[in-house]
Amino acid sequence: MTHGDAVGLVSLVGAGPGDPGLLTLLGRERLRRADLVVYDRLINPVLLQEVRPEAERVFVGKEAGAQAMPQAEIARALIDGARAGKAVVRLKGGDPFVFGRGGEEAEALAAAGVPFEVVPGVGSAVAAPAYAGIPVTHREIASSFVVVTGHEDASKTGSAIDWEAIARGPDTIACLMARRTLAAVCERLIAHGRPPDTPAALVERGTTPQQRVVEAPLARLPAAADAAGLAAPAVLIVGQVVSLRAKLRWFDQRPLFGKRVLITRTRTQASEMARCLVREGAEPIEFPAIEIEARPSAATAAAVADLAAGRYDWAILTSANGVDQLFDALDRAGHDSRALGGVRVAAIGQATAGALARRGIRADVVPTRYVAEELLLTLADHRLEGARVLLARADGARTVLPQGLRGRGATVDDVVFYVSRRPATADSAVVARLEAGEIDIATFTASSTVQGCVELLDGRTELLERPFVACIGPVTAATARELGLRVDVVSEEHTIPGLVHALKDAFGKVTSHA
Ligand code: SAH
Predict the structure, then answer these.
(1) CA angle at 423 for the pair 419 and 429, rounded to the nearest 5°
(2) Which of 11, 163, 248, 373 is 20 to 30 A from 295 in CA distance terms?
């Protein structure tokens, strides 16, 4: 979206505190149209998936050991980008104008005459306590709060911060960048009159599946935080409101909170599941065990031509991938969804029906349970004698369906539109986490994902002994058992939300699984 000679707009966008769902709608819109994105540490990498692949991404944060890009250089990059006509997003953690040096960057832009805007974000000063069950104000116990930096060493003389006013004035104190200086900050507050027994909490990595909270009276918090090994980023909260956490704790009590969940479906299909899991406080870990590859052939070309010519009575789709591949094949042959205009359409599974619906096709028949046998039962009411049926499927699919249909007198073209195969290499970082026993749950959404996963692990099924194993349906579960896995849960509804629901149920009952 480059606009010739015109100077581009720089958007200072708040990315929120960690949970990707806390990005604002305007922030997302700006990320989607950006030509250049300049981002910090503490930005959830999931947010960068919103950025167009061809857009430029520049990381300016501090990696362990390395130096952050100097502020003047960041400003330079923003100004140069805008002058080159680019839509520039400066993505900053939390809110850009709360301790993010967003003010300085805006000043540099204003001085350079570059147009800019500020898209506020959800700041960690309020969001981290909120996810810990701590409201920063409350009608009865807190009617004011302050946000202060702990970065400046509280023990140094000549501090720019009026610690006395902060200790005595506001009911609630939120202190950012205070991990390293925690002891000094707490001492200062007590020295200036905040009672040592004031409830206090440190919230580490608030709003994320890694959130940890330590609560203690103000005087004892530094020792308690050290004992628990809490690290940055963390927010210190001081005030009576902290005592409400006992009643209002919600996020870190969800059944799937903090659970590390392996997703074995294809990279492109993983995101829906990852989103569902993140909403439950779980940490999705992608480990694609299958890849989809189109298989254009004389058979697919003939099937597509016959479909467009109205020579089929039925088209049967058994997966969302099958729908995608059929429509790609139609497109390559110069056709579109009208090719399905005169044909009756059956879909196995809600995901398959959904993929059809997105193409404007409402399936005539969707069995209530999502297995081939159930489709045959559902089709029992329909006359299939002499009918011509197109079955658009993956290589190596089960033969139950074509056999059953032929048994009923139909002529079946069982056409392979794609192959699902194992990726060439396994992500070694994920294998290492399996070896270290760090994965809590492994999910399988098709037989092929179980087979692929076991192959990627070189047959080491013992790595799948510790994780709780969840399968989307009975066919997938049977494959898992055949390959020697223990199956802990099979979802009743064979969909992604159904699978996540089954996991919530299982973990709500058994809170710990060794
Ligand atoms: N502009 C940001 C703050 C940047 S300063 C905002 O509005 O949130 C960085 C500090 O923010 C960290 O040292 C920490 O105190 C706090 N912080 C950011 N993300 C956090 C998180 N997820 N949990 C706890 N503290 C966080």
Answers:
(1) 155
(2) 373
Q: Which of 378, 431, 425 is nearest to 405 (CA)?
A: 378
What tokens appear for 186 in the block? 């707490």
DSSP letter at 179 equals S
Report which of 264, 261, 259 is spatially closest to residue 479, judged by C-alpha positions.
264
**Which residue in the block uniquely carries the two structure tokens 């953690």?**
93
Task: Determine the Cα–Cα distance for residues 184 and 150; give it in Å rounded to an integer.
Answer: 9
Tell me whether residue 177 is one of the annotated catalytic residues: yes
The CA distances from residue 399 to 406, 412, 415, 514, in Å, are: 11, 12, 12, 39
Residues 163-206: pLDDT tens digits?
Answer: 999 999 999 999 999 999 999 999 999 999 999 999 999 999 99
Q: What is the pLDDT of residues 51-67, one digit of tens each?
A: 999 999 999 986 655 67
Identified catalytic residue from 19, 86, 92, 177: 177
User: 146 and 185 in contact (C-beta within 8 Å)?
Assistant: no
Per DSSP bridges, beta strands 88-92 and 36-39 are parallel
CB atoms within 10 A of CB 511: 8
- Token pair belonging to 1: 């979206």
pLDDT tens column, 211-257: 999 999 999 999 999 999 999 999 999 999 999 999 999 999 999 99
Å from CA of 99 to ligand 1 middle: 9
Could you tell me what percentage of the chain is helix, strand and coil, using 3-state DSSP and rounding each to the nearest 5? 40, 20, 40
d(CA 323, CA 26): 33
Of 82, 91, 133, which is closest to residue 112 (Cα–Cα)? 82
For ligand 1, mutation pick of 19, 42, 62 (most atoms within 8 Å of CB): 42
The pLDDT of residue 400? 85
